């Protein structure tokens, strides 16, 4: 099913200018606290991991805050161990991505530290987290901004961090959600901003993955899906064999042109990359199950690497 959805700001067919962006920004407000929900939890990890501030977002000009950006790393870095990157909150509104990254650090990361170097950026877009937004205050989507001269400071800061990591990344798991608001708010807003026509897609009920069409790694994707299936249900394709408008590559997985789209999972040259997509609005999943599904996806990726090494 697809349907046209006209957004409340702007003129259909005409891209936003500064006035429309200012109107949009004025409608945003804080609905939760990055400092309470994320930064405070990082304090509790400092006895076990290195917690590093890798950047800062000064959004005071938008009547917002200055947000410190943090990454968590395992200690005793070893060039002989594979390195895994986990990112959450690239789209700040996708709650289980942020809390799944934190939960992985709290419950699983220490157990894998002997075998892996681990880097976790749990909340790449703190303003988006607080205001429950896909974009930053500039009306820019960080997850389409992992490109040279990035227009999103969130993406630019993370790219700079990864340039400082002394080993190559083997695995990157980027934790996301697909929500009902993708259709009711964020896709219509994007079309209005860009002066294009939006047609909504069906929101899949369940968990699915997005791989890189240039290196789809089906066995890796399957290992992640098998791990998640122990926690929550995997999304089924629609009547056209698609998920969010894309042809299914394998059950529960689609592929995107990562480099072309400037997606976070194209941030490194990692051999194995995937973006998780949890459906938090499902009647068949609780918020806790969504967080556990994100943790299970990272565990599945780690176990895949260990199995390949045996």
Automatic annotation (TrEMBL):
| CDD domains for the chain | M14_REP34-like (cd06231)
Q: Name one GO molecular function term.
A: zinc ion binding
On whether Ribonucleoprotein is a keyword of this UniProt record, the answer is no
User: What InterPro entries does UniProt report for this protein, alphabetically?
Assistant: Peptidase_M14
Q: Give a yes or no for keyword DNA-binding in this entry.
A: no
Give the protein's recorded name: Zinc carboxypeptidase
Question: For the Peptidase M14 domain, which residue ranges apply?
Answer: 30-309
Where does the source fall among the domains of life? Bacteria
The record's keywords, sorted A to Z, are: Carboxypeptidase, Hydrolase, Protease
Tell me which Gene Ontology terms the entry assigns under biological process: proteolysis
Which family does the UniProt entry place this protein in? Belongs to the peptidase M14 family.
- The species this protein belongs to is Pseudidiomarina planktonica
Q: Where is the active site?
A: 277
Query: What Pfam families does the database record attribute to this sequence?
Result: Peptidase_M14 (PF00246)
